[in-house]
Amino acid sequence: MSSKENIMPLSEKRENESFKHTNKPLSKPGLKETKISNTKLHIQEEKSTPTGTVRKQVSVEEEEDVLVYIPEKPRRSPSPHSMESLLEYPANKINIHHRKEANLLRFEPPSTDKTSTQSRIEALQKELNKAIKEKEALASKLQAARKELKQKTQQAQEIDHKMEQVTQIKARIASNKQEIVESQSVYDELMDILENANEKGLEFDKTLSGYNDQVNELLNELSLTNYRIQEFKESHCKAE
Q1: Is 44 within the bounds of a domain?
Q2: Residue 117: inside a domain
Q3: Which residue range is the domain that position 31 belongs to?
C-alpha cells in the first residue's frame, strides 16, 4: 500500500464531513448541528535493510469528539429589562458554555526525512539486538538458576534423609537408655539380694562354727569318758 492512497487533503475531508452532516436531520429545532473532529495522521513507508524490510504507514483518521449546537440565526440583543432580570438572577444558577476550538497545531504531519528514518531504524535495530542479548543473558541465568535449584533440592533431600536417620538413631539411643535404666534397677535389686544372702551366709557361718565348737566339746568329753571307762575296766580286772 503506497502513502498516496492513504492521504486525503484536509479540506476535502472536511467538505465530505460537512456534506454528511447537512444530510442528517437536526436534533433540536432552530439549531444547526456541527461536529468538531480530531485528525490523526499516519505514514507508511517501505524500505529494505540488511536485516529485513521496514514498513512505515501513513494514513489520516478523524475522531468525533465534541458535538456543538449553534443557532441558525443570531439572537437579538437583550433588552434592558432582560438585563436587569439577568442581574437579579442568582449567579450560582448561571451556566456559561464555551465552544471548544480544534487545535490544528497537533495535526501537523511528522517529518519524513530519510536520514531520521534510517537513524530511527538503526536505533530500533540496536534496541532489538540489545533486547535479544538481554533475553539470552536472562535465559542463561534462568538455566543456571534451575541447575542450582536442582542441586539445592538434591541437597535438601539428602539432608532430610540424614535427619530421618538421626531421628531413628536418637530413638534407638533413647530406647537403649530406657533398657539401661531398667537393667540398672534389676542389677540394684540383685545386688540387694546378694548382700542379704552374704549377710545371711555370714550368720550361718557363725552358727555353723558355733555348732562345730559344741560338737568338738562333746567329742572331747566323749573321749574323756571313754578313757575313764577304759581305766575303770583295767582297774577292775586287776582287782579280780
Answers
A1: yes
A2: no
A3: 3-112
pTM of this structure: 0.31
The answer to whether residue 154 sits within a structural domain is no
- The amino acid sitting at 58 is V
pLDDT by position in tens, the chain (length 240): 444 444 445 555 555 555 444 444 444 444 444 555 555 544 455 555 555 555 555 454 555 554 555 555 555 555 555 656 666 666 666 665 555 555 555 555 555 567 788 888 888 999 999 999 999 999 999 999 999 999 999 999 999 999 999 999 999 999 999 999 998 888 898 888 988 888 888 888 888 888 888 888 888 888 888 888 888 888 777 766
Q: Taking Cα atoms as reference points, which of 58, 7, 16, 6 lies closest to residue 37?
A: 16
Contacts of 140 (CB under 8 A, 6+ apart): none
Amino acid identity of residue 184, one-letter, is Q
Total domains present in the chain: 1
Q: Determine the Cα–Cα distance for residues 219 and 221; give it in Å rounded to an integer.
A: 5
| Domain contains 36 | yes
d(CA 219, CA 36): 156
Concatenating the DSSP letter of every residue in 38-84 gives: EEEEEEEEEEEETTEEEEEEEEEEEEEEEEEEEESSPPPPPPHHHHH
